[in-house]
Amino acid sequence: FPIHDIPRYQDFIGSGAEVMVRRALPEDNRDDQTVKKCLAEFMEDYHENFDVDSVLYEGIPELLDYLSERSIVLTMLTNKPEIITVKLTQSLLSKWDFKVVMGSREGLPKKPDPTGAGILKDKIGIDGSDIVYFGDSGIDMKTAVSAGMVPVGVLWGFRGQEELESEGAKYIIKSPMDITEMISF
């Protein structure tokens, strides 16, 4: 299959691995059998190479230190496969105490379905209106809105301000430490 330019892949991600594979394939090769085969190959490679060239965005360690020092509850909800999410969290985020880390798994609908966000709220015992949900995609904003959380779009990720706002972002921030200006302690 033809190779896409690297920036094009940003349009493919966000809705889970199967959707990403389907989007990346040529339209006339998106039949279930081809998607299943390509997804299996992708997952095999992803399991082996999940942390190759994976780094935290600039400013994230400082932000996590800041939030942790103030006893802010940290959680994660992603459409990445849960087994890889846990490995990435252990590899890149082990310095910080995330109370809940949830990824895509059998029986759990993917974002923007609010089911995962609801489970997260129940596990930490905090009302949605008191949870600030940071995300870099329209899917994240839809999830936050439907779960009754405060949706905050971040511009250092994969999507732009227009998408974030059109999908419900209440606030937009440009860099990780901008979060400190909007949260009162």
Overview of the structural elements:
The protein is of the alpha/beta class and 185 residues long. Helices cover 41% and strands 15% of the residues. It is built from eight helices and five strands; from the N terminus they run αααβαβαβαβαβα. It has helices spanning 17-24, 32-49, 60-69, 82-92, 115-124, 138-146, 161-166, 179-182; strands at residues 74-81, 98-104, 132-135, 150-154, 171-173. It has a three-stranded parallel sheet. β3 (132-135), α6 and β4 form a beta-alpha-beta unit. α1 (17-24) packs across α2 (32-49). The longest helix has 18 residues, at 32-49. It is globular and about 50 Å long. 22% of the residues are buried. The model has no long low-confidence stretch (mean pLDDT 94).
How would you summarize this macromolecular structure in one to three sentences?
With 185 residues, the protein is an alpha/beta fold.
Query: Numbering strands along the chain, what is their spatial order in the largest sheet?
Result: 3-4-5
Largest sheet: 3 strands, parallel
Poorly predicted ranges (pLDDT <50, ≥5 residues)?
none
- Shape, please? globular
* pLDDT averaged residue by residue: 94
Element order, helices and strands?
HHHEHEHEHEHEH
How far is the first residue's CA from the last residue's CA?
52 Å
Assembly context of the chains: single chain
Total number of helical segments? 8
Percentage of β-strand residues:
5-15%
Kindly name the structural category: alpha/beta
* Number of distinct beta strands: 5
Q: What is the rounded Rg?
A: 17 Å
- Tell me the helix content: 40-55%
